[in-house]
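Lab notebook, bench 4. Still working through the backlog of constructs that have no structural model yet. Next entry is a single chain of 682 residues. Request: give me the structure tokens for it.
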Amino acid sequence: MAKLTDPITILKGVGPARAKQFAALNIYTLGDLICHFPRGYEDRTRLLTIDALEVDCPACFRAMVMNNPRTNHIRKGLDITKVQVADHTGRLTLTFFNSRFASENLIYGREYIFYGAVSGDYLGYNMTNPVFEAPDAPALATRRVLPIYPLTAGLNNAAVLRTVRQALSICDPPREILPGELRQRFGILGADTAYRAIHEPKSMEEAEQARKRMIFEEFFLFSAGLSLMRQARSGRQRPAFRNLEMEDFYGSLPFTLTNAQNRAIGEILEDFRRGVPMNRLLQGDVGSGKTMVAAAAAFCAARNGCQTALMAPTEILAEQHYASLEKLFSQLGIRVGLLTGSQTQKQKRETREALAAGDIQVAVGTHALLTEATTFQNLGLVIADEQHRFGVAQRSRLAAKGSDPHLLVMSATPIPRTLSLILYGDLEVSILDELPPGREKVETFLVGESYRARINAFIRKQASEHHQCFVVCPAVEENEELGVKSAEAWAETLRGTVFPDLRVLLLHGQMKGSEKEEVMASFARGEADVLVATTVIEVGVDVPNATLMVVEDADRFGLSQLHQLRGRVGRGSAKSYCILVTHNRNAETLARLKALCKTNDGFRIAEEDLHLRGPGDFFGSRQSGLPAFRVADLSLDLATLKQAQEASAQWIARWGDSDDPEAEELRRRVGELFSRAEGTMN
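Model written out:
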């Protein structure tokens, strides 16, 4: 028998070219191939009569060939073969394009099993390129439940199915990791049965049972991994912070913190007290005051002789954090330093020397903090802002500059509470679910193209009052197939035709990093009236003077993404507005967008987005460093997730450090799962 770790090139028909195609699907070994599960199934087990076939509904039927196939050469590269088939209920014309197989293998007077979809109308019906097999031939394409696989260029479904079947014939599936007691309790198939049935089910019911097993196994492995990560973390020690007095910090603030901020700070201080490295997510809506909570943590770290590193995804955001923290901490005797890629070599050298000497207690920066040249005297706290922009590996590199420092990651992307555990893994979660008093709601409106003149007039009105406007487009360049506004073309239109007297800037993700930084900095300085951009402005820029957000083709965005975009305005004292523009008149689409107009609560919006769109918006980025699920769907399988979490916690507690073969195999599979996830990081 072959091994799961053997390369797929040992299989017949898998040479270098085919292996390269499979590599595009991250399939390199027999184990990868066997775990490449179908995305769905076609039930081809039921045979219909010709008169029962429905237009555009693929189905199987048995019929006799009524004439010799005729092939006409239309032009170079196009041959059309036609043949008539019939059963006792009617006749049907079949058409094949460039199919020598059909012309040579459909024999007059013989019966075949066909699978395809009828097209046509009362003038006549036709079926194009159906697949067919003889009734006494193996049921490969008809009379079976056919798995449909995720594919890539040059690799069709039949090739994947054929290769998977070959792998299963020479290699045992992955070993069992779910104890028999657990399988019996939840009605779950054994590993050998499930791994074979998911690829070659005898019925749709068996396919669903196999899928149920894989969903449970994925969640069980994932939950067990988180439990093992927590165990490992709880085993690490670092000196507890003894000085937890915060009166000086609170007294330096010109405002009173919200109850949510005080609660989050209390949770962080409790982590500091325990003598175990903190691993906490601070999650809060735009404007909820995460920076002040992070400042409180940095203050406590400084009072206990430790340095803090705050890493931001952009230089603009790093500079904003530096300005606010330097103003706050200068009166408390805490020195703040800034470290970014665009600084001069002298500036970077001086900052690094001060960090290494311990003269700077709080370092704010971008990826420049990660370089080998940056060292700390006593790094005790790492803060990652907009954490989804950083991978686990990047956070780990920064943490490695200290001795098991505390970790606080911040995110302004509201995540449904049901998904927090999955997306943020083994992090404890603090939620800021209220806004500071005095922050006005951003008024949001949904309009069609007929409002264009009024939108333009409103943009001009805001500019006349010395305010600024964001205009967001879903695409960078024009694309006729997408049929949406592009940032480049729309910026040109606004500059040349609509607002020739206003200052219009363009920003998109294809620009160089330094160019993007300069455009955004220019807009933040008030040197433009309108910024036309893609979603590159979704996170991390603070322009208090911006009072209007216009989102073109708003139906192309998820609710949570639209909410993030809306959060770019309303950051100053002036009344702010968000206008969603769409051509789409679909009732469901309009209902989804209207939900955004009714509330500014990011968590309610996130729950609605999960309900309407599934979890894609929350898992579009692999930057969390956590495994992607092959079969499970979080919008549908939350009940199974809960069962698997409870079951894994029970079995982890029972096994502990046991050398039981089942425990050993589980730990191996968990390590493999999370190693694969880390391997996908940038």
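Notes after review: The chain has four domains: 8-41+148-215, 46-143, 247-432, 443-599. The two ends are 36 Å apart (CA to CA). Flag for follow-up if needed.
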